[in-house]
Design brief:
Length: 163
């Protein structure tokens, strides 16, 4: 992955962060510096997306395949080009406010993982590694999916993606 997230600990000096960041950028990495917290910036955003996706499936709003398709063919498609806040500025914060005031009423706001996820884990449904999760991995080809993902990332990077 091109992204490296430096998570500053309580005892990490500014000099150590800057030297590490400079080195990583010289290696062609995109570097995010985050203050120490559970999950860091990238992981926290991804975890929230994942929690909401689980809520959507558990509440019967859509199935896992449709949620994945919405991400891949919809909002996820723009993310390599511009980020969340660039998108919000582009559409207008007044529209973002109106959408959030309406949509946030129905979003999952659970402090813990959704009960349906806990039940899946208790049943041993751990995803690809157990053969079943949201998908039946006896019907999906992990090697093909991984190869497609890696090919996309390599082509994307070869095209000269800039921060």
């Amino acid at each position: 992955m091109r992204l490296v997230e430096l998570v500053r600990g309580d005892k990490t000096s500014d000099e150590a962060v800057e030297r590490t960041k400079t080195l990583l950028e010289a290696c062609g990495k995109a570097v995010v510096v985050a203050e120490g917290s559970p999950g860091s910036a990238r992981q926290s955003a991804a975890a929230r997306d994942g929690a909401e996706a689980i809520h959507i499936v558990a509440e019967g709003i859509a199935d896992a395949e449709d949620v994945d398709l919405a991400a891949k063919a919809g909002f996820g498609l723009r993310l390599p080009v511009y980020g969340i806040f660039e998108h919000q500025d582009a559409v207008g914060l007044d529209l973002v406010l109106a959408i959030q005031d309406y949509v946030n009423q129905d979003l999952a706001r659970e402090p813990n993982a959704h009960e349906s996820l806990k039940q899946m884990v208790e049943r041993g449904e751990l995803g690809r590694k157990s053969g079943k999760g949201y998908y039946d991995w006896s019907e999906k080809d992990w090697d093909e999916l991984r190869e497609r993902r890696d090919r996309f990332i390599l082509e994307f990077l070869k095209a000269g993606w800039k921060q």
